Amino acid sequence: MTARGQIIIFTDLDGTLLDESYSFAAAEPALQEIAEQAIPLVLCSSKTRKEIEHYRDKLGNSRPFISENGGGIFIPEGYFPDESIFERYSPVTENGYRLIRLGIPYHELRMAVGNLRERGFPITGFGDLSTEELMELTGLPPEEALLCKERDFDEPFLFHGDEGKKEALFRAIQDSGLATTQGVFYHLLGNNDKGKAVKILSEIFRARYGSITTIALGDSPNDLPMLENVDFPVAVQRQDGRHHPSLALPNLYKATGIGPRGWNNAVHELLSRLGEVS
């Protein structure tokens, strides 16, 4: 623990910790550094619970995580010795976790997709796609495409119209009480985002440790709320070598390197910097 308190790292997956082939190999040195310092690494993704569990297994990660653009905060049972620190968020017990639900049920989002299509908006949700179509669209292997379809709080979708129709679609979504965000795809969701979930989980970690320093890494517009709610926000370079212009924060650290390579560089640099004041 540094003089700044316990470090907590939040990270996006696709395009950030994972490259275009869904590998985190380029981030291995920093991941080892995090493990050696026992720093909680919280995966915060648009991916589903089962997709994130798949990568937690690969990473050897047993920390809490945030699924589907802040739809759910999953805290492994027994992770915090004193559960009273998060009881005010009304967690439920599911699948070995204490789950704090922030998103609306997936079936309501699927109904909304159908209603929007009936109104003439040309959209296709992930729930409309077969596993084979999803594999072709995302490049996911079969087992991960299946996990991607088991959704709880968020519906990624494709839009097939022009810019004017898209603006009308986003207004219609907003008027219906729902929201959109953008990662690799557009997403339909309720009144939740990564930032709200990160803020809550940070409060829980703060209640546990007393003092914390938070870092977050992302690459897309849906990461902006997360980056806005930490001490050290980091943008990694995207495939075109640029940092997404929507991530324009005054204290933003712009990592050098695409995806996990930039992730590795930024984490090493920040941990070195924070270690100097320990």
Order of helices and strands: EHEHEEEEHEHHEHEEHEHEEH
Number of contiguous helices? 9
User: What is the arithmetic mean of pLDDT?
Assistant: 94
What is the 3D form? globular
List its salient traits.
four-stranded antiparallel sheet, 278 residues, five-stranded parallel sheet, alpha/beta, globular
Written description of the protein model:
The structure is a single chain. 36% of the residues lie in helices and 22% in strands. With 278 residues, it is of the alpha/beta class. The strands form three sheets. Strands 2-1-11-12-13 form a five-stranded parallel β-sheet. α1 packs parallel to α9 and α4 crosses α5. It is globular and about 60 Å long.
Topology summary:
Layout: E1 6-11, H1 28-36, E2 41-43, H2 49-59, E3 65-67, E4 72-76, E5 92-94, E6 97-101, H3 106-118, E7 123-125, H4 131-138, H5 142-149, E8 154-159, H6 163-175, E9 179-182, E10 186-189, H7 194-209, E11 212-218, H8 224-228, E12 232-237, E13 253-258, H9 260-275
Parallel strand pairs: 1-2, 1-11, 11-12, 12-13
Antiparallel strand pairs: 3-4, 4-6, 5-6, 7-8, 8-10, 9-10
Helix pairs in contact: 1-9, 4-5
